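Example 3.
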Amino acid sequence: MIPQLVTIGWRRGGGGRWRRMHVPVLPVLVVLSPLLLPAVLGGLIACLVFDVSPAGALRGAGRLVWALPGTRFEIEQGDMGVLVNVR
Amino acid sequence: MMNEQRRQVLQMLSEGKITAEEAERLIDALDRDRSPSPPAGGSTTKTRPKYLRVVVISDEGAGGDGAAGVSGGDGSARINIRVPLQLLRAGVKLASLVPPQALTRANAELRRSGVDIDLTQLKPQQLEELIEHLDELTVDIDSADAKVQVFCE
């Protein structure tokens, strides 16, 4: 399943509290779809230039995106912190 | 059921279809199948781990408030990373697409930096096997001011 919600959190120093931003992936993809097509075309051209199989690259990238849900990065240092959670 | 299989093995032995050694091996295998009897009420189905977890808790310069994994002191740090094993597999598959000329250039740069590793010798199957066996990995480092844990769950 493709990621549905990406949560980005951060906390600044000085006793600040956690701030979180929830990004719904599908609506954002729909909004960015006009840019997505040229990006995919650019990627395919880059594949041909660098002698990489475009089908393999597309399949690999898809597999990577499909495997993203469940990923979580949480780093805190003192009062500061950053969090990325993919669901 | 088990006795029936044992009888079949003995029958094959008596008919000369298998040797005594083979019969012994088969009976041993039947015994091995029977021996790991499940504990009462418990399930033996071991679920395969799905995630690789890296947890680092450091209390450098803090007043010891990080014992429960909560940062907050001046120098205390906490890293909690969870990566799906499927993502690692996908990454390995994607890395196998890197063209050979890029690998030779990477090799040259690595050698120049003093790291003599030949990336072209690294086969995707080997990396996949490595990830396959990651679920048995457990690293647990516990020092006075830091704790590092790497495991699969």
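Chain B touches chain A through 28 residues (CB under 8 Å). The helical segments of chain B are 2-14, 20-34, 85-95, 100-112, 124-132.
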